[in-house]
Amino acid sequence: MIYTFGRTSAYEEAFLTQTEVKKVGQQGDYPGGSVWRTREEAQAFVDSLPNRHCPDWAAADFSVYGVEADWDTDAYVESGAPWRSLKRDARLVKLV
User: Fold this and answer.
1) Which of 4, 20, 65, 91 lies at 20 to 30 Å from 38 by C-alpha?
2) What share of the chain is helix, strand, coil (3-state, %, to 5)?
3) pLDDT for the residue numbered 61
4) Measured in whole angstroms, how far is the alpha carbon of residue 26 from the centre of its chain?
5) 36 close to 78: Cβ distance less than 8 angstroms
6) Which strand ranges, in their side-by-side order, compose the sheet holding 90-93?
7) Long-range contacts of 12-18 (CB under 8 A, 24+ apart)
8) Residues 22-74 pLDDT 10s
9) Which residues are registered as beta bridge partners of 9?
């Protein structure tokens, strides 16, 4: 399992209304969703999001979720980014 983050309200709504929730992988010009190797790395990124200057990206609005994918085979290095991008769609998992 690898990890991602998303807007809590949107992801939680998806878990309530959909039988399977997925993180979108690479498609056309879209590089794929951002993923991290560990839950702690994803949480550290969320914690680094600004809280005052950009309310749309406030850390309080986001949560970390699991992604049923493999770091080495399902994600690729995005130049200059502190994360990898997902190559294929993968199932999201709520974490406890």
Assistant:
1) 20
2) 30, 30, 40
3) 81
4) 13
5) no
6) 2-7, 62-67, 90-93, 22-23
7) 12/63, 14/92, 15/92, 15/94
8) 999 999 999 999 999 999 999 999 888 776 555 566 556 889 999 999 999 99
9) none
- Compute how many other C-beta atoms are within 10 angstroms of the C-beta atom of residue 42: 25
Q: Are residues 34 and 4 in contact, defined by beta-carbon separation less than 8 angstroms?
A: yes
- Rounded Cα distance, 12 and 58, in Å: 17
The residue ranges of every structural domain in the chain are 2-93
Report the alpha-carbon distance of residue 34 to residue 17 in Å, rounded: 23
pLDDT for residue 47? 87
d(CA 32, CA 11): 17
d(CA 83, CA 81): 5
pLDDT value for 48: 85
CA-CA distances (angstroms) from residue 3 to 31, 44, 52?
A: 16, 12, 25
Residue 87: phi, psi to the nearest 5? Answer: -80, -30
